[in-house]
Design goal:
The chain has 13 helices and 16 strands. The chain is an alpha/beta fold. The strands form three sheets. Strands 1, 2, 3, 4, 5, 6 and 7 form a seven-stranded parallel β-sheet that branches. A seven-stranded mixed β-sheet has the order 13-12-8-11-10-9-16. Strand 12 and strand 13 form a beta hairpin. The longest helix has 20 residues. It is globular.
Length: 335
């Protein structure tokens, strides 16, 4: 049983705390948040204690590892502190909003054998993983195209958008990682277009975008297309399509059940998609913890490493340059 502490008790931290508490290979001894009331609420629900500080968590003898779910600007600091304390770390994405801070953190922890895993949970979705495994098994021949659709059900509140760091660092960062995972090689070129098509007034006030399309190409010529929207009125839209020389595989949306109704009023009616990421990726989040426990128990590089977090942010920065300068960007310009 690996004892994992949770740093940060907001929405994602609450979910992780509950998952750790019910996972068969983990337990939740302690939580921490700068908001003591939030920490107390999570601790009360999950049967954990509240720590007075991050230092208190890292010094605790009953803590084997930590999960960082705090505000993004704290991630790199907490990673460094956890590595210094010898505590394996699972950190929510992104590592930081700025590539310079990520590079500094990378240098700071270089040479350490303490596992650091980044929370790109979508790699662990059963459907997504099955699609990738089909490619690796040669079931669709040579991979030619990766198409990733990722659309949220509704625009987040203004406060969230103000702190998120931008669509591509907050939302598309998952898709950049998933693209690398599916492609099996690094994109070398990025072209992106984006706009404020959902709420132009709010996006204008925040100097933000709510809709984007990104096209990438690898050195071997494999193509990838990512399309994002902050609002899809029909629900949380999460689809992947992998096109190869001898076939195609898809991993699609999830619904509560697969019953469909046919009547005189409609040709086909089905349940709406699972509402948001916690529901849609429930299995993936649990599998992510399982993979982290493997890294803690066996040592070595986690399945989703710090470097994966760094490379996803590099692609985000390349896409931002492409949007600003309206041109194809070589990833080597950023890396």
């Amino acid at each position: 049983m690996v004892r994992i502490a949770v740093l940060g008790c907001g929405r994602i931290g609450q979910m992780h705390a509950a998952n750790i508490g019910r996972h068969p290979r983990t337990s939740l001894p302690v939580v921490y948040d700068i908001d003591a009331a939030a920490a107390a609420a999570v601790a009360g629900r999950e049967g954990a204690r509240v720590a007075a500080s991050v230092e208190d968590v890292l010094a605790s003898a009953d803590v084997d590892a930590v999960l960082i779910a705090s505000a993004t600007p704290t991630h790199a600091d907490y990673i460094e502190m956890a590595v210094d304390a010898g505590k394996p770390t699972l950190c929510e994405k992104p590592i930081d909003l700025g590539l310079a801070r990520v590079e500094a953190c990378r240098e700071r922890i270089a040479g350490s054998s303490v596992p650091v895993q980044i929370g790109f949970n979508r790699r662990f979705d059963p459907g997504h993983r099955a699609a990738r495994n089909a490619v690796l098994a040669g079931e669709i021949g040579d991979l030619h195209q990766v198409i990733i659709t990722s659309r949220d059900p509704e625009l987040p509140p203004r406060g969230y958008l103000e702190a998120a760091g931008g669509l591509l660092r907050d939302m598309t960062i998952h898709d950049f990682d998933l693209a690398r995972y599916m492609l099996g090689e690094e994109p070398v070129e990025v072209f992106a277009v984006a706009g404020a098509l959902i709420d132009p007034v709010l996006m204008g006030e925040l100097d933000e975008i709510d809709t984007a399309m990104i096209v990438m190409r690898t050195a071997s010529g494999t193509q990838c297309h990512i399309n994002n929207s902050r609002t899809a009125v029909y629900g949380y839209d999460q689809r992947i399509e992998l096109m190869g020389s001898t076939g195609m595989v898809q991993s699609g949306n999830r619904k509560p059940h697969e019953m469909r109704c046919y009547s005189a009023k409609s040709g086909e009616v089905a349940e709406p998609y699972l509402y948001f990421f916690i529901e849609r990726y429930t299995e993936a989040f649990m599998a992510e913890i399982d993979s982290f426990v493997d890294a803690v128990e066996k040592g070595g590089e986690p399945e989703v490493s710090f470097e994966d977090g760094r490379r996803a942010l590099i692609l985000a920065e390349a896409a931002y340059v492409s949007i600003r300068e309206k041109r194809l960007v070589q990833v080597s310009e950023i890396a």
